[in-house]
Amino acid sequence: MAGSGAPRRRRDREAPVTDQKTARPLLPRLLLTGALSAVLVAGSALPAQALDVPPRPSEGAVQDQADLLSTQEEADLNRLIGQKNKDNEYIRAAVLTVNDTQGESIEDYSRKVATDWGVGDDGRNNGVLVVADMGERELRIEVADGAREVLSDGDAESIMKDELQPGFKNEHYAEAFTDTLTEVYDQANPQAAAEREARSTTIMGVIFGLVGLGAVVGGFLAWRRSRRTKKIREQADREIEQFQREHPEESITEGMRRAYHRYRQQNPEAPGLNATPGKAKDKDGVEREIQYAPTFQSWLPLYVMYPSLYSGASHASSSSGSSYGGGASSSFGGGGGFSGGGASGSF
């Protein structure tokens, strides 16, 4: 009995030692696991990098960052949107062209821009944003929830396939936007579409009679406008190159170059002595007088301070009312409701 009890006492004394050896690394492992979990949770809670939303047009409803449109084409589109807004309460449309969507899908990017811009009327959510991404060659007609009552996803898909995609495939960008916007507004206002169709049928004979003359005159005007645009662009490039030679430490981005091209197209000559300076609101909503910049060197500091005012967009004059719609309501009324309605395409 005594001999059998001794081993039991040794095992009893040894048991705590064994438990201590196995338990000793357990606490550091628990601490390490907890620390790693905290790091992972903290990392997942970090906010994603904010999207650099393009500035909303200071006047009109077209932001042509990809530089697809001439000054006249952009003005024509703004005039079309302004007139349609005046005639049609169901839709408020805007246009954006970009060279990339900053890693976002065309759907997410369009939805975020439309929401940030406030396309549509507050409370009605009747906005439509037409987006062209030249980098990925993708297109999007983003339709707010309120506008979907008159412009369904199926309607947007048909307009995408029939109007927007074919025009971009043929590089007829202004025509593609014009036809797309016309269909968007007319789809929301069938009466206007019917009246337009009736007028078109009535004057069809006259159109055929004048088509030859119109083609000749139109071709000449297009050639003259193209030549003028080329000369202004070449002069702008020479000014930029001279500035870079004189200021090699300054970095001129491609976005600055495109913005100056548009500004110079919009302001090819100095205003007259008695001309009333135009005014526009900056990104903070403060109305400022638009100064004329005769050279790239004088334009650059103005652009750095107020990029939306000196990017070549048409600005409102000091008189009341809109210069693109004759007092028509704006496409930006604080609208929202962009939950993913619309259609996407590519070219």
TrEMBL record:
Pfam families tied to this protein: TPM_phosphatase
Keywords: Membrane, Transmembrane, Transmembrane helix
Location of the TPM domain: 62-186
Domain of life assignment: Bacteria
TM stretches of this protein: 203-223
Region spans: Disordered: 1-23
PANTHER family assigned to the protein according to its UniProt record, in alphabetical order: UPF0603 PROTEIN YGCG
The protein, known as: TPM domain-containing protein
Protein's organism: Kocuria tytonis
